[in-house]
Amino acid sequence: MEHTIAAISTATGEAGIGIVRMSGLTSFEIGKKIFKPIKEIDDKNLENRTLRYGHIYDDDKLIDEVLIAFMKGPNTYTREDIVEIYTHGGIISVKKVLDLTLKNGAKIAEKGEFTKRAFLNGRLDLSQAEAVIDMIKAKTDKAYEASINQLEGSLKKDIKKYRDGLLNLLAHVEYSINFTEDGQEELDNSVIIKEGEEILEGLKKLYNSSNRGKIIRDGINTTIIGKPNVGKSSLLNNLAKVNKAIVTDIPGTTRDIIEEYIDIDGVALKISDTAGIRDTDDIVEKIGVDRSLDFAQSADLIIAIFDLSKELDEEDKIVLDLLKGRKAIVLLNKDDLESKLDIDSLNIDENIPVIRISIKNNKGIDKLEETISKMFLQGEIISSNETLVTNIRHQDILGRAINHLESSLNDMKLNIPIDCVEVDLRDSWEILGEITGETIEDDVLDKIFKDFCIGK
């Protein structure tokens, strides 16, 4: 990491300010070369983390009027010398300043390279580094709270505790392997088994939190389905509190998938309004119907809408077939009109909630939101300081570590030779280290940081 990296750290577009960030050995040198302060400053004052006002010049050419901060490592985000230049917002000004840093010796940062350096320099462990991108992508308060909790080291502390426990068990097992043959007293396996089962219970608790964690982090992939004109687009608009979808009395108005994120009790609903399901000769609409069917197959939750004011028809039956074996909610819309639908003829599975609503009169929408919350969180209140596993990589690692630990404990109970027990126990300890980055391959590390944005 000898070279200095630079990148734009703010989003592209019109804004009050833009930020160009440098990190590395020559960041101060480059910063002093391109920045001309209103008042002359010496090197000592550059280190006091004070914003300085001045201008960025390319030789004698004025580039922008800026504020600049020189931050001496190791007390920085990357633990390296960092320079941040606060330019006028917009596309041109920040790009010109970035180009000037590159012209003077910096290299463009790769995706996530600032955070990767923070990890490699020991400021963050890998779970904390991954929490950074989760904070950036958070769409609800609960998702943000879960990621900031992880950034503060909640998962790191738990993993360290369990790895330390496993290391202690390994020391006992190694003692048995190396010394009992010399006449030393054998250790009581029951003590090792008891401590191992306590660790196993803790790991399983973390693993089991991953279902709720995934929902909080990624949201619930939800698809609204139904035949044309049952109220799908109206429901999306009602939940989103904005006219996202076009609503008309003309069947087939919605031809493509319309998506919106909606916050329900701190959980994001990634909700998709799909084309009405029906037979059609319109090629474009038919493509939309086919996509609706595909979305319904992959959704975490299907919201199926039926029109109470009309009798059951073949198009409704196609919708009903899509609900078999799926997590779904059935909405009976237009409850404000005379009912012509024989509800018993729907033959809806008893596990699927059925709610009568009138989207027009905003009736039953609160019941729908309450039902969604109960279905996915089982009414549990998630504490802001509770450790949740929100990352599928962490879930996979925990699952593998649990399997090896269970195998080791079972072997102990069956009095399998102690050296065989040691292999699974050590594997469990090493696998857990992949979460914090203590035992991870370089190619996996590169893949993780490629999910970051440039400049973070």
Summarize the structure.
This protein is an alpha/beta fold and 456 residues long. It is 45% helix and 17% strand. This is tRNA uridine-5-carboxymethylaminomethyl(34) synthesis GTPase MnmE.
Low-confidence stretches: 244-256
Q: What's the number of extended β-strand segments?
A: 13
The CATH topology label of the largest domain is: Rossmann fold
Domains counted in the coordinates: how many?
3
Shape: flat
By DSSP (H or I, 4+ residues per run), the number of helices equals 16
Rg calculated over all Cα atoms: 29 Å
Largest sheet: 7 strands, mixed
Rounded mean pLDDT is 82
Helix and strand element order:
EEHEHEEEHEHHHHHHEHEEHEHEEHHHH
Organism: Miniphocaeibacter halophilus
Protein name: tRNA uridine-5-carboxymethylaminomethyl(34) synthesis GTPase MnmE
